Amino acid sequence: MPMLRLKGMMGNAGLLMLSGVIAQTINLLAYPLLTQLYAPEAFGIFAAFLSVATLVGSAICLRLDMVFQVVPRDEEWGVFRAALITLICVGLVVLVLVWASSSWVLPVFVADAVDQMPPFLWAALLVLTSGLIGLTALGRQVRSKWVNYRRLAGAQVARTVVAVLTQVGVFWLAPGFFGLILGFLLGLIVFCLLTLPLSVTRVFGDQHPVPPGKVLLRHQAFIRTDVVNILIGAAVMAIYPIVVLALFGAEKAGFFALASRLSFIPVEFLGAAISTVFFQQFSQSVRAREGFLPLFQRTLAFGILAGLVVALGFLVLSDAFVWFLFDPLWAPTAGLIIALLPTMVVRFYIGCIGSAPLTLKKPGLIFAWNIAQLAILGAVTLATLQYDLSIENFLWASGCCLFIASLVYTAVLWRTIQNHVQVLVSEETRVG
What we know:
Elements: H1 2-37, H2 40-57, H3 64-70, H4 76-109, H5 113-116, H6 119-145, H7 149-169, H8 177-195, H9 200-204, H10 212-218, H11 220-263, H12 265-288, H13 292-325, H14 332-339, H15 341-353, H16 356-359, H17 363-387, H18 391-431
Helix pairs in contact: 1-7, 2-6, 2-8, 2-11, 3-4, 3-6, 4-6, 4-10, 6-8, 7-8, 11-14, 11-17, 12-13, 12-15, 13-14, 13-15, 13-18, 15-18, 17-18
């Protein structure tokens, strides 16, 4: 039985990984065409807008999507309903806050933002996008818990296909940022329709839902901890496009959006695969109380070496790659890819071993690492404002500081694992 469960787990993971590869490949194949249709400014605004929406969407359900995964079957309808009601309530609060502040915040990032669209519509568009991102997270957890991985994998590919086809098709009707966001929204809607239960009676039967307030109270400890962690973690990823747009303008933000998309491909594919395998094997080794320090060391060494090899490849080929696939207008992207390499290497090798603190029940290490990343970005942003750094120097400075900080974090993590080993040895000695 354990072997059958392991094979099933690997088969499901492989199915989702395959669908992710297909979806990302479709995205990458579409990029040369999309960059012909849309200007760098459109991509820059789209990337920053999407970063804010993703940040809000990560917590718009107050992480009840994760609670759904762990509750018993007879509590699912109550948690599902509470997640939907929470999403609407949080969305309305965000709508009011963004609407009230957008008239003076938006011009900081896009000078003519208010001329392009009234503040209320900007706020409504942000809440709609964030809400759909929250619904996709809920749908993903629903299908995962019900072991409906085929539906989940198909929805992932369908979402990408619909988004790309829409972005290409509506360019002549909605050029610029609006065409890109419209395609993204339609992709999210398709994903939600394919993953969320559309018939409450048929799916949840005669379950009697717990009132939303009681659901929130019952899981308040998890919600308090996880919402803070997910917001900080999402902020680390989301803040870069926003800062680049504010510091360097929409055009350079567009070059940055494409450069980061291309340079982080190894992180999304190879790094994510290594991380998945490491998490499973490291957790198993910790439970078995043996072999986890050598496993950590081997994975760390491989992550650093593979990250450096990939970086060398980008260093040699980025100019030719951008010249061959993209319009000459996008030529500055090659220089930004190179400037992003220190950051890419850090995210690659730290991502490979990133689950170790969770397995050791030391989530505070991850929290500290995320705070360090935000502090570094804040310090480099202040330096850019004071010394008028170029975007290349901004990326080099933040990347090199991240690399130094990652070495410190790795040393602390290594020492933590060594201490764990020593505790186990002491316990075995006392028992013996």
